[in-house]
Amino acid sequence: MEIPASLLVTTGTFVYVAVKGSLHSSDTSVFGLCEVEVKALVKRFSNKQKEVINGIILEAPPIVVINALSQLGYRVVATTGASQSLDEMEFERGIWYAAQYGDLDRVIKLLNKCNDPDMRDTAGYTALHYAARNGHMQVCQLLVNKGADVNGVTRGGATALGRAALAGEGQIVDFLLTMKADPFIQDSDGKTALHRAKENGHLEICRKLLRFAPTLKEVSDNKGNKVDDLI
């Protein structure tokens, strides 16, 4: 991003700052700001006070920070996603963010606009992964009713069922199993939803999964561990 000359001591001089953050993150790093501009941003967003060389970490999603900088007079001169406009980036982030926080109305609005319940972020996560992980039943039901793939996997092989099991979301696990989620799918570590539930101490979910598919206990991960081998 570029600071207009009117904000600088030397007229006609431009400096460049960098904004870094995942599109679905709640934190954003900003580098290269002068002290006055740092103070201006910290007034609007909380500063996490972590040590960052030549920068600060703000408690806000990247799109929100970019919009705030635009209001202060900055303009975008380059992005790492050259094929995408900021509107497209914000839209794509929107459905994941809305699903993560259970914003049903926004999920409906975005689905009506794009009609793609399986839109993926850069790591291959869909809105269903986020909704399942965070226990938002209505969002999960809506996405599945709109045709979301209950067995869709991320680049790391994670399923919505695995994310729900990991997080201890028992009702979501029940719902996804009813919707034909496959509990035998293994992620890139060879772990099933049962492994993830056991690792995180969610024993009731382990029992649910074993009642649904008793032979899950015989599945080994990439290290040869069956669920009974996990502490």
Automatic annotation (TrEMBL):
Q: Does the keyword Repeat apply?
A: yes
Question: ANK repeats at which positions?
Answer: 123-155, 156-188, 189-221
Whether Repeat counts among this entry's keywords is yes
Molecular function as annotated in GO: ubiquitin-protein transferase activity
Gene Ontology biological process: negative regulation of biosynthetic process; protein K6-linked ubiquitination
Pfam families xref list:
Ank, Ank_2
Query: What cellular component GO annotations does this protein have?
Result: BRCA1-A complex; BRCA1-BARD1 complex
- The organism sits in which domain of life? Eukaryota
Q: Keywords in UniProt for this one? A: ANK repeat, Repeat
Q: What protein name applies here? A: Uncharacterized protein
- Species of provenance: Phaedon cochleariae
